[in-house]
Amino acid sequence: MWDAGAGGGHRWPRRFDVSHPPVGGDFARFLHELKDRSGRSYQALAAHTGISASALHRYCRGDGVPRQFAVVEKVGMVCGASKAELVELHRLWVLADAHRDLPADRAEPIPVAAPVVTPRTGLKTAVRVALTALLVLTMAAATARRTQPPAAQDITGPSWTRPPTEVRSELFGVTMNSSTGTMPGFRVGSVRLWDSGTRWATIQPRRGEFDWSVLDRLVDGAVRAGLPPLFVLGGTPAWAAPNGPEMAYDDGSRTAPPDDLADWDTFVRALVDRYRGRIDAYELWVMGNHPRYYTGTTETLVEMTRRASQIIKAADPKARVVCPGMGRLWEAEAQRVLQRFAELGGMRHCDVASVKLHQRTASDPPETMLDLLAAIDRAMHQSGVHPTLWNTGTTYDIPLQGSLDDVTATNYAVRFYLVGLYARQVSLERMYFYNWGGTKIPIVLQAEGGAPTRAALAVERLQRWLNRASIRACGHGRAVNLPDNVWQCEFTVAGLTDSDRPRDAVIRWTSRGTATTDAGPRAESITRLDGTTSAVAPGDTVEVTEQPILVHYRRAGE
After folding, report:
1. What is the pLDDT of residues 233-244, one digit of tens each?
2. Which residue has the higher pLDDT, 301 or 74?
3. Would you say 148 and 70 are in contact if contact means Cβ atoms under 8 Å apart?
4. What sign for the dihedral angle of Cα 215, 234, 229, 279?
5. Is residue 111 within 8 Å of residue 9, measured between CB atoms?
């Protein structure tokens, strides 16, 4: 993991280019290690330190250094750093702070090695170095007291709270990886049609000719099952963009927009005229900021959105128009395309914005999606738009990310949808899990023709918990008097029996590890994803794990 760098044995992580080291250098590495060890997301740390998640991410990535050590010290303390680690963190911050303002042609690694006790250096040398570092820390603290701004407010309370709103079944969506018309064998609330043999190039293989057979099967199956379908447009036919780059599919579809946008108008009009009243919503391109799917300009994409929206609303006013999907949003360039689309007025033509909300890797906890969601929200805010959001997919390389073990897959599948509920504060309305029917993905819900997996049945259990439920608040950690790794959302749910009146309940889980929590006043019972229920009394302790639990409460006065 380490390479010797210039300057007397100073060592740098390999991920840094020694000839042009990042601003943060070893400081960034050390801070990132503390963050990882704490098990907290950037958003969780930001909530407890008073700095933004994006700024903290820059510091951990080596793209910046805070001007005041007090900021760093607070992060270290929240991460559980020892006194010795805080001393080391300060030493590395001093070096990084000095390195930050050097001209580019002088930005070299600074040759100061960490104190290490060896038979050659001896204990006295190590103690002398440590005392020197402590003196520097003391002087810096005195300076910080004179210069640092007042500390951020320590605010407690839920991440959000609002009047109870219905948990709609459509939140629990899946993207179909099937062209047969078969629907999932477990409870879901909506379906998205992509990877299902319904690309534009497949439906309209030649100008003036349409083959609706596959889409008819899928729409008929969804309507029979009572599942609102979201149709995704994309994949220009070769005849409409003969010089466009080919998509990564075997139907000859192109990533370029059609040479003549009148061809686009014709397809959209034929599509909506055929499925008026049966297709619930139209996503106007699968991924508008990824060259594997779209290689036209953002300006053209906005114009295609405007034209399609006008046609759809004229033919089927009740259908919802979903803006072209935007993916790769962990990357700054992809966020800039999203922001550019909004600045050009693209969002004005849609009812919903489509974003690909997912972890960096499939093995990361689902709660890390909230860091990405915060970045998306900032990009929207900077563009002056605040649309309703639908999560419509994941990353292109998801089939290459291996598979998760059965327990983790089950927990993550359920928490995928819980994150969608947690994100209500930014108007996230639907979550389409990728995918249903396929097996070459980290979490499999059901292979077409097979039985639902344990993960699928757990997702169904979550939906049964929330049948006829309303959500009113979500929060996590110390802000809501819980351990740092515990998350929860508060609901009003249907009674325990058909004759029962609604009652309060919370769903509680950890992002990593386990935690012991207080059941809370009026606690009555705990239900688990396997369907088992146990009694609990007010004041009892409740162990919380990465598998969500439902805690029911007695009504006031009972």
Report:
1. 999 999 999 999
2. 301
3. yes
4. negative
5. yes
pLDDT-derived band at 47 (thresholds 50, 70, 90) equals low
What DSSP string describes 157-181? Answer: S-SEEEEEEE--GGGEEEEE--SS-
- Dihedral of CA atoms 473, 477, 481, 487 in degrees, nearest 10, equals 50
Cα 533 to chain centroid, rounded: 31
Q: How far apart are CA 242 and CA 201, in angstroms?
A: 12
Give the gyration radius of the chain's Cα atoms: 27
453 pLDDT above the threshold of 50: yes
Q: How many residues does the chain have?
A: 558
Alpha helical stretches, state H, 316-356: 332-343
What's the CA gap between 431 and 170, in Å, rounded?
A: 8
The C-alpha atoms of residue 230 and residue 392 are separated, in whole angstroms, by 10
- Decide: residue 507, CB within 10 A, 0-12 exposed, 13-18 middle, 19+ buried: buried
Residue where the block lists tokens 């996590």: 476
As a whole number, mean pLDDT of residues 548-552 equals 97
Whether the predicted pLDDT of 231 surpasses 90: yes
> Is the previous residue joined to 485 through a cis bond, with omega within 30 degrees of 0?
no
Among 488, 478, 476, residue whose Cα is nearest residue 548: 488
Say if residues 418 and 428 touch (Cβ distance below 8 Å).
Answer: no
CA dihedral for 307, 308, 313, 315, sign (positive or negative): positive
Angle (CA) 168 278 323, round 5°: 65
CA dihedral 509, 512, 513, 515 (to 10 degrees): -40
Q: Write down the residue that tokens 């325990």 correspond to.
A: 496
Of the two residues 139 and 412, the one the predictor is more confident about is 412
Q: What is the model's pTM?
A: 0.76
For residue 54, the model assigns a pLDDT of 65
Say which residue the tokens 């050009």 belong to.
344
CA distance 88 to 114: 8
Q: What is the DSSP string of 87-112?
A: HHHHHHHHHHHHHHTS-GGG------
558 vs 550: CA distance, rounded Å: 20
Confidence of residue 249 (pLDDT cuts 50, 70, 90): very high
Q: What is the mean pLDDT of the chain?
A: 86
For residues 466 and 491, is the Cβ–Cβ distance under 8 A? yes
